[in-house]
């Protein structure tokens, strides 16, 4: 079985993992089975519900900065920034500066979670 999975391109494995994670999250999110079935039908385009609506547009527009930031920081950006700083300016980024950036990012995330009524963490539902 491992040999069969080794032949599959990594992109398909990643897409498969995302599909399984999304469906699993949906199973844990809904407490009503009829709403779960409705959501799964919409997810797999088995419903007459529109794919895009005003609510989705508003949520995407309000969070586009965070989506773009997440896309950028999924790549090894920090390593390249460190190398660029050392190469161009001869500056070595200290551990304290790196810790300060991470602390600021943590505080920003905490402030955003406090400011919103929607909390994506599943364990709050149980």
Topology, number of strands: 0
The first-to-last residue Cα distance is: 36 Å
- SSE order, as H and E? HHHHHH
Percentage of residues in DSSP E strands: under 5%
Report helical residue fraction.
Answer: over 70%
Number of helices: 6
Shape: extended
Detail the poorly predicted runs. Answer: none
Could you describe the largest sheet, including whether it forms a barrel? none
Rg estimate, integer Å: 20 Å
Explain how this protein is built:
- By secondary structure, this protein is an all-alpha fold.
- The chain has a domain at 1-49.
- It is built from 6 helices and no strands.
- The chain has helices spanning 2-7, 10-29, 33-43, 54-73, 77-89, 95-115.
- The radius of gyration is 20 Å and the shape is extended.
- The protein starts with a helix and ends in an 11-residue tail after the last helix.
Task: Please outline the helices and strands.
Blueprint: H1 2-7, H2 10-29, H3 33-43, H4 54-73, H5 77-89, H6 95-115
Short summary of the structure?
This protein is 72% helix and 0% strand.
What tags apply to this protein structure?
mainly alpha; 6 helices; 126 residues; extended
């Amino acid at each position: 079985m491992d040999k069969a999975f080794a032949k599959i391109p990594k992109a398909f494995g990643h897409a498969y993992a995302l599909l399984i994670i999304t469906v699993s999250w949906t199973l844990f999110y809904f407490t009503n089975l009829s709403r779960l079935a409705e959501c799964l039908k919409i997810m797999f385009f088995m419903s007459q519900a529109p794919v895009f609506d005003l609510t989705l547009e508003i949520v995407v527009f309000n969070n586009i900065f965070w989506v773009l930031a997440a896309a950028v920081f999924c790549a090894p950006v920090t390593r390249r920034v460190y190398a660029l700083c050392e190469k161009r300016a001869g500056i070595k980024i200290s551990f304290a500066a790196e810790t300060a950036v991470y602390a600021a990012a943590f505080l920003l995330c905490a402030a955003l979670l406090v400011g919103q009524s929607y909390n994506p963490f599943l364990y709050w539902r149980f």
